[in-house]
Amino acid sequence: MLSERRLQVLRAIVQDYVGTEEPVGSKALTERHNLGVSPATVRNDMAALEDEGYIAQPHTSAGRIPTDKGYRLFVDKLAGVKPMTAPERRAIQNFLDGAVDLDDVVARTVRLLAQLTRQVAVVQYPSLTRSTVRHVELLSLAPARLMLVLITDTGRVEQRMVDCPAPFGETSLADLRARLNSRVAGRRFSDVPRLVEDLADAFELEDRGTVTTVLSTLLETLVEENEERLMIGGTANLTRFGHDFPLTIRPVLEALEEQVVLLKLLGEAGDSGMTVRIGHENAYEGLNSTSVVSVGYGSGGEAVAKLGVVGPTRMDYPGTMGAVRAVARYVGQILAES
Predict the structure, then answer these.
(1) How far apart are CA 31 and CA 26, in angstroms?
(2) Alpha-helical regions (H) of the chain
């Protein structure tokens, strides 16, 4: 275990390196921070921190920089989440309140996160598998053609065309719409197959083929993996951190193009807690020089998706964590009110 003083020295090194982009020396630390000890003592503490792998000497200068292990300890023990100011909170709320639909909510969230953190923002669309059905609408387009519209509690809208095996009258359509919603409205997607399995039996024989086709289309919509959707923004922010990436940022850009990689980075949608993955904690090699800060968002206290940011390991962790958490909270409120 590190002594309290050495923890304070590590905190000061991280703060200075993040702020100045320059390796940190003992003289600068004692001048900038009230550590209460001599530069010689700070040098000894820095030597001990280096021996234990928390800081490293990038070249022959006197300065040190944090390692992934040092950033990890900083995040776990030393960094409080920086709260947003009242004007920042109002700005977030006003910007997101103007959204007109789910796509707009996600697009605005990406822009906002990228602007607040000056990193790459990633937002996952709400997962259908974690959603509940708000309403199923059935519209007649032609005697034997319908449109099925599925509306979720997160504001997501899925539309499907249904070609019926026979003409389907307005009375039968209204009956199917009413019976269907009485069974599935307000229910989890995972419950729907069981709830509708015998619904066709309630209709006249000549209508059962169409009812079965509509139900098949509904169930296909529920199980399609189109919830694996992401929106990304602020990639150009990486160009400000060129010197933070060894040799080139190309591996980072290539990783950001891989949706599967990003989904794994964000983590499981059901985990609503804050996750910080630093450097080599990211399994994908192209992102070993980055950190990922993510958190779940959703309505009713349950996470339906994740959002977060990707940036260099030399990151303002308290500020980034505060921004990510605040934005997730507002997005959850919007979904709950939509």
Answers:
(1) 9
(2) 4-20, 26-32, 39-51, 68-73, 86-97, 102-117, 170-184, 192-196, 208-223, 250-256, 259-266, 317-337
Q: What radius of gyration, in Å, describes the C-alpha atoms of the chain?
A: 26
Cα→Cα distances 312→14, 209, 239, 249, 327, Å: 13, 57, 11, 10, 20
169 and 156 in contact (C-beta within 8 Å)? no
Of 33, 70, 27, give the one whose Cα is nearest residue 48.
70
Q: Six-digit token pair at 87?
A: 């004007």
Q: What is the residue type of 71? A: Y
Q: For the chain, how long is the longest CA-to-CA vector?
A: 91
State the CB neighbour count (10 A cutoff) for residue 99.
18
DSSP conformation letters of 129-197? GG-BEEEEEEEEEETTEEEEEEEETTS-EEEEEEE-SS---HHHHHHHHHHHHHHHTTSBGGGHHHHHT
**165, 209 Cβ separation under 8 angstroms:** yes
**CA–CA separation, 332 and 127 (whole Å):** 13
Tally of CA atoms within 13 A in the half-sphere of 1 that contains its CB = 3
Sequence-distant (6+) residues with CB within 8 A of 175 are 203
pLDDT tens track for 270-281: 566 888 999 999
- 122-148: per-residue pLDDT in tens? 998 887 767 788 899 999 999 999 999
SS3 for 45?
helix
Predicted model pTM: 0.78
